Amino acid sequence: MAKEKVTISVEDRLRALHQLQIIDSEVDKIRIVRGELPVEIEDLEDLIVGLKTRLEKLTNELEVVNTDLTAKKTSILDASELVKKYDKQLKNIKNNREFSSLTKELEYKNLEIELNEKHVNDLQAKILHKNEVIEASTLQINEREDELKVKNTELEAIVKETEKEEKALMKKSDKAQKVIEERLLNSYSRIRGSVKNGLAVVSVSRDACGGCFNQVPPQRQLDIQMHKKVIVCEHYGRILVDGNLLDG
To answer: How far, in Å, are 23, 140, 237 from residue 192 at the CA level?
Structure first.
């Protein structure tokens, strides 16, 4: 196989490179359409995880507040029972010392009830707010999950639709690569990876490089049209080919 590649002319190798670039550009288009969706899906999945973590935290906080509310209400009931008890005892007190002591205790319990009632109001307001936030977070999660389902379905449809086309293009790509020597193929791959549009092989159009649009000297253009050697753009290293090469 290595000997066969050596005997292939530079023109045929340039033609194969040009063909390979056209094929790879078509594959790029397919993957660009598909490639945006997986990123969006991944972002949505991360967002949903974050929202669910926040919702779990809110739910735990609500549980703590509800526990505090129950405890405050229980304290109010206990203190109220004691107030009733002290009120009855006051009616049967015989001396000033007991009266003074019981009055202070009664006053303390009433203050305790008043303070706990304030806490109850605060806690109830907090519960109301947290319930609103939990409801909004749950709605947001449901909306994002619905959006995720739509995008997953869309991606599956695109993959199904383009899978056959991509496989056919990859077969053509493999065929083109077989007539290109490894060193040249490595250079092609390196250039494709270093430029934004993935164009490693471009033709000369209107006396300019088809990749960076810088002028190509006339003598260099003549050399390109001769198809006798691999010529690269002086600015970004793209491989320059004759635009009519595939017609030959």
So the answer is: 13, 41, 10
